[in-house]
Amino acid sequence: MKCSRPRWPNKGLVLAVGAFTLLLLFSLHVSPPTCAVPEKPPGTPETLTWTSPPARPPPTPCHANTSMADLPDFAQQPQHIRNFLLYRHCRNFPQLQDVPLEKCSQPVFLLLAIKSSPSNYERRELLRRTWGRERSVQGLQLRRLFLVGTDPSPHEARKVNRLLALEARTHRDILQWDFHDSFFNLTLKQVLFLQWQETRCTNASFVLNGDDDVFAHTENMVSYLQGHDPDRHLFVGHLIQNVGPIRISYSKYYVPTVVTQEEKYPPYCGGGGFLLSRFTATALRRAARVLDLFPIDDVFLGMCLKLEGLKPGSHSGIRTAGVHAPSARLSSFDPCFYRELLLVHRFLPYEMLLMWDALSQADLSCGKRTQVY
Ligand SMILES: *[C@@H]1O[C@H](CO)[C@@H](O)[C@H](O)[C@H]1NC(C)=O
Ligand SMILES: *[C@@H]1O[C@H](CO)[C@@H](O)[C@H](O)[C@H]1NC(C)=O
Ligand SMILES: *[C@@H]1O[C@H](CO)[C@@H](O)[C@H](O)[C@H]1NC(C)=O
After folding, report:
1. Cα(65) to centroid of ligand 1, in Å?
2. I need a surface site. Which of 129, 148, 156, 248 has the fewest CB within 10 A?
3. What is the pLDDT of residues 174-206, one digit of tens each?
């Protein structure tokens, strides 16, 4: 045991601390419930009540497929690969947090669906305050969702689930399912989101799917998307082609032959952030139903597109592999540089705030346009 019994300095102090704690608990208990004011997009009528979606019966628990253990090399695989194989067939998990029906009751132009780990509270807060703010841009509605699983450690999960319940109550932007939030379960998260969207937000014209550590220039995105028809194919991001599975067992992206024999991946867009139309979301949903889950989420979407006979496209304003400033004199944090982009990967929470603030300055003077497209 690592824990030793605490030794109290004296009884008087213990009593004082105890009394204070009681007082504090009591005052918290009797104070009127604080009503968090939900963000209201400009121009919406006052909604005093939020409508919860109808409760669904929890799915039957999904059990490990133990016959996977008979596959050659199974026992030699790292734990996360074994877990992936054992639970690959599981697709129905109880939903722990949902958003009110009103999320998509107005025509949504751009739905921001951001993958976030349960404990990434600071990232979610910064996104809410910056580029992910629900608002209207050029008269078109933006809505925000965070896609979250549960912490694999039961102790941590108890705490963090309460945090997520609190965030859901305050911000109404959490979709949480009861599966372990791990790198190899990101595909599951993506598939569950597409399923959710089918019944709850199918009319959103476009979706930005991305991570919570990107900076997305949502205003530029709206301008770009306005030139597109939501009922035609659109899937753009940082295009990756001519790569295949990494067979080095210590890599984060290691995929052994027991998972796939293929040596080539179809073209796909880096998972940090990509844009798609509702036409393409429907196609992905259809394909995802028939394909086996593949542990790397962005590659899986490439496989879905291929099955549907669709191709991912490249947008030079989406830089999920980091940006290279056009010249050594330009810092890659220069807001003038970002003014031209749609999305950039790897931002610290405070950097999001700085960039958002800089880009929002009306008098941002940048001189010569820096060519980044
Ligand atoms: C379990 O694994 C075996 C061996 O790979 C496979 O043939 C079978 O279809 C799997 N069962 C389910 C329910 O996925
Ligand atoms: C995915 O989530 C399920 C359900 O929580 C879990 O049993 C499985 O181990 C997870 N898979 C990975 C690769 O983490
Ligand atoms: C979505 O749009 C279709 C027509 O495009 C319409 O029939 C349907 O009622 C809409 N659904 C919602 C939930 O707004």
Report:
1. 6
2. 248
3. 999 999 999 999 999 999 999 999 999 999 999
Whole-number Å distance, alpha carbon 231 to ligand 3 midpoint, is: 13
Which residue's CA is the nearest one to ligand 1's atom 14?
Answer: 89
- Does the Cβ of 89 fall within 6 Å of ligand 1? yes
In contact, 270 and 248? CB cutoff 8 Å: no
Rounded Cα gap, residues 230 and 207, in angstroms: 10
Amino acid, single-letter form, for residue 371: Q
- Has residue 21 got a pLDDT over 80? no
Task: Characterize 147-183 residue by residue with b for buried, 16 or more Cβ atoms within 10 angstroms of its Cβ, and e for exposed.
Answer: bbbbbeeeeebeebbeebeebbebbbbbbbbebbbbe
Residue of higher predicted confidence among 21 and 183: 183
Residue count of the chain, please give it: 373
| CA 295 to ligand 2: nearest atom | 13
218 close to ligand 2 (CB < 6 Angstrom): no
Query: What would the two tokens of residue 54 be?
Result: 């109808």
Residue nearest to atom 4 of ligand 2 (CA): 179
68 lines ligand 1 (CB under 6 A): yes
Of the options 3.90.550, 3.40.50, 1.20.120, 3.40.225, the CATH number for the domain spanning 66-319:
3.90.550
Q: Where are the domains of the chain?
A: 66-319
> Residue 65: CB within 6 Å of ligand 1?
yes
Cβ neighbours for 354, distance < 8 A, ≥ 6 positions apart:
333
Tell me the C-alpha to C-alpha distance, in Å, between residue 293 and each of 57, 245, 301: 24, 15, 10
Distance (Å, rounded) from C-alpha 209 to C-alpha 275? Answer: 6
Strand positions, DSSP E, 218-363? 235-237, 239-240, 268-269, 273-277, 313-314, 318-319, 343-345
Residues 6+ apart with CB under 8 A from 280: 233, 234, 235, 305, 310
Q: Whose CA is nearest to atom 13 of ligand 2?
A: 84
pTM above 0.70, yes or no: yes
**Centroid of ligand 1 to alpha carbon of 326 (angstroms):** 51
CB 174 within 8 A of CB 99: yes
